[in-house]
Write a structure and sequence with these properties.
The structure holds two protein chains of two kinds.
Chain A (H helix, E strand, L loop, with lengths): L1 E9 L6 H12 L12 E7 L4 H16 L5 E9 L2
Antiparallel strand pairs in A: 1-2, 1-3
Chain B lengths: L3 E6 L6 H11 L3 E6 L10 E4 L19 H11 L3 E5 L1 H8 L6 E3 L7 E9 L14 E8 L3 E3 L2 H9 L3 E6 L18 E5 L5 E4 L17 H9 L3
Classes of the chains: A alpha+beta, B alpha/beta.
């Protein structure tokens, strides 16, 4: 079995209004050194196979077809063997 | 000839009855609700993807709805030239399913915008606008994620093919970023696909069809569709 950890990140060129709001919050808290806040998504799931290539292929297609929208987001996929 | 409108219902749709009532009771067409798990459009001539929060907008607005069995039928129908109109969440579903380019991001204000806005008709030759008499319409919006975004190449192509149908404007029809309620690129409120048979728009024309509500600016969009069958 493999565990997939996915990080879906909004492209840098696209405004992240939630990040902007959190950054505003940092300023209100007095954290003046904090900037460029981005709020991304972290997703985890398991793939019930011992075949690394198959796990990689299925996870990647899942990301492409549903978890990330390629128009506005990039994703990173990390696979770990899970016992 | 009576035109048959199919109104798709997803779990979380909440403008389906408004759309059904407008096209059937007010405009005299046939209409039928189409549950998202069905596999047939039941001989519909026009498909409406209504507003709401399909699947609670989980993951991204419209992202799960695009996987519904009925959406395969809608895609086939659209690819064969069938007329499809996606309103608000329906627009989000159309972009997620790839029937329209671009994406709808969270409003730049971070707030849910619920108010009347004015939209300028920037393409009067489309199936959806050719019977409109006015140059701009007053139509309500109600969305948290209506901030239309497309990359530069897509935007250039939208302009070159005259696919931008509605832009946010003021009460005199002036298009300016001051009157943009959500941060949409180029003030875009509605677009059609390259072949012109699929429209996505954030404002709700189905909510302004009944004269007792004091505004019937939405009627012309449905009448344009009806006239395209004559």
């Amino acid at each position: 079995m493999y565990r997939a950890k996915i990080f879906v990140k909004r492209r840098k060129s696209i405004l992240d209004p939630q990040g902007k709001a959190a950054e505003q919050g940092a300023k209100l808290l007095g954290f003046n050194n904090i900037s460029k806040v981005r709020i991304d998504k972290s997703i985890e799931f398991f793939i019930n196979t011992e075949d690394y290539n198959l796990a990689q292929k299925e996870s990647d297609e899942f990301c492409k077809k549903l978890l990330a929208n390629p128009i506005m987001e990039d994703y990173e996929l990390v696979l770990e063997k899970f016992r | 000839m009576k035109i048959r409108f199919g109104v798709v219902v997803f779990p979380g749709s909440n403008c389906d009855h408004d759309a059904y009532y407008s096209v059937k009771q007010l405009l005299g067409n046939d209409a039928e609700f189409l549950w998202h798990k069905e596999h047939s459009l039941k001989n519909s001539d026009v498909i409406i993807l209504p507003g709401g929060f399909s699947y609670g907008d989980y993951l991204r607005s419209g992202a799960i709805a695009k996987l519904s069995p009925l959406m395969n039928e809608v895609t086939n129908f659209a690819e064969k030239g069938g007329i499809v109109i996606g309103i608000c969440n329906g627009f989000q579903i159309l972009t997620e399913s790839g029937l329209l380019p671009g994406v709808l991001l969270k409003n730049d204000s971070l707030k849910f915008a619920c108010k009347d806005v004015f939209i300028k008709v920037t393409n009067k030759n489309s199936i959806f606008t050719k019977s409109l008499i006015k140059d701009y319409l007053k139509i309500p919006i109600a969305h948290g994620e209506g901030n239309y975004f497309a990359d530069e190449a897509t935007l250039t192509s939208l302009k070159a093919n005259n696919q931008i149908v509605f832009k946010y404007c003021n009460q005199d029809g002036e298009v300016n970023s001051l009157y943009n309620p959500n941060g949409s690129i180029d003030n875009i409120a509605g677009i059609v696909n390259k072949t012109g048979n699929v429209l996505g728009m954030m404002p709700h024309p189905e909510r302004v069809c009944n004269p007792i509500l004091g505004n019937t600016d939405g009627v012309g969009i449905f009448k344009s569709i009806m006239n395209s069958f004559k």
